[in-house]
Design brief:
The complex is a heterodimer. Chain A is mostly beta strands. Helices cover about 0% and strands about 55% of the residues of chain A. Chain A has no helices and eleven strands. In chain A, the strands form two sheets. In chain A, strands 2, 4, 5, 6, 9, 10 and 11 form a seven-stranded mixed beta sheet that branches. In chain A, strands 1-3-8-7 form a four-stranded antiparallel beta sheet, with no helix packed on it. In chain A, β9 and β10 (about 100-105) form a beta hairpin. Chain A starts with a strand and ends with a strand. Chain B is mainly β. In chain B, the strands form two sheets. In chain B, strands 2, 4, 5, 9, 10 and 11 form a six-stranded mixed beta sheet that branches. In chain B, a hairpin with a 2-residue loop joins β6 (about 55) and β7 (about 60-65). Chain B is globular and about 40 Å long. The relative contact order of chain B is 0.34. The chains are: A mainly beta, B mainly beta.
């Protein structure tokens, strides 16, 4: 299994440009998440999904959009890039067991907005 | 008060030292607890789960104190490769989207 994959690994955007960050998982997990992590800071939840067709906002959703048409894919869309969106973006997936939830993370996408 | 609080550190220790991290959580109904490890410029990865009875994995020991609402991670005989950020993670039993990650404690192990 590839686990959670993310593309691209790194991207430079100009202010006002748009892009889609791709995320895919092959573990058949229902739950998927998008986080951002600013330098020296913790993870902040942007959006999450509990299954195909179901998404909801996290802590910092402004400036982003998501869709979940399949179990495997959970792309994150930035419509009008701003310097404040410079960050590392992690996608994660998980499943629930009686012992709780373990999240598996992708390698991240580093985004620089200039 | 933050839902999950950790001492940000950094903790600077020599090889072979024993180091302990604490984490407090505010939601008394929290059910599941974990420690994740994040290496510099890498994604977080599960280190170990934390159980009420305490659990050990090699040099790592995790403890949970529900009455005081804190969890701990003890690392014995520190190695250079233990240098990383350790994230305290708390989640309710039923709500995956409510999993809360602490900001992390930075550990530097020096030769």
């Amino acid at each position: 299994n590839a686990g959670v994959t993310q593309t691209p690994k790194f991207r430079i955007l100009k202010i006002g440009q748009s892009m889609t960050l791709q995320c895919a998982q092959d573990m058949n997990h229902n739950y998927m998440y998008w986080y951002r992590q600013d330098p020296g800071m913790g993870l902040k939840l942007i959006y999450y999904s509990v299954g195909a067709g179901i998404t909801d906002k996290g802590e910092v959703p402004n400036g982003y959009n998501v869709s979940r048409s399949t179990t495997e894919d959970f792309p994150l869309r930035l419509e009008l890039a701003a310097p404040s969106q410079t960050s590392v973006y992690f996608c994660a997936s998980s499943y629930l067991t009686s012992g709780g939830e373990t999240q598996y993370f992708g390698p991240g996408t580093r985004l620089l907005v200039l | 008060r933050k839902e999950v609080e950790q001492d940000p550190g950094p903790f600077n220790v020599p090889e072979g030292a024993t180091v302990a991290f604490n984490c407090t959580y505010s939601n008394s109904a929290s059910q599941s607890f974990f420690w994740y490890r994040q290496d510099c410029r890498k994604e977080p990865k599960l280190l170990m789960s934390v159980y009420s009875s305490g659990n050990e994995d090699g040099r790592f020991t995790a403890q949970l104190n529900r009455a005081s609402q804190y969890i701990s991670l003890l690392i014995r005989d520190s190695k250079l490769s233990d240098s990383a950020t350790y994230l305290c993670v708390v989640t309710p039993y039923t709500g995956g989207f409510k999993t809360i990650f602490g900001a992390g404690t930075r550990l530097f192990v020096k030769a």
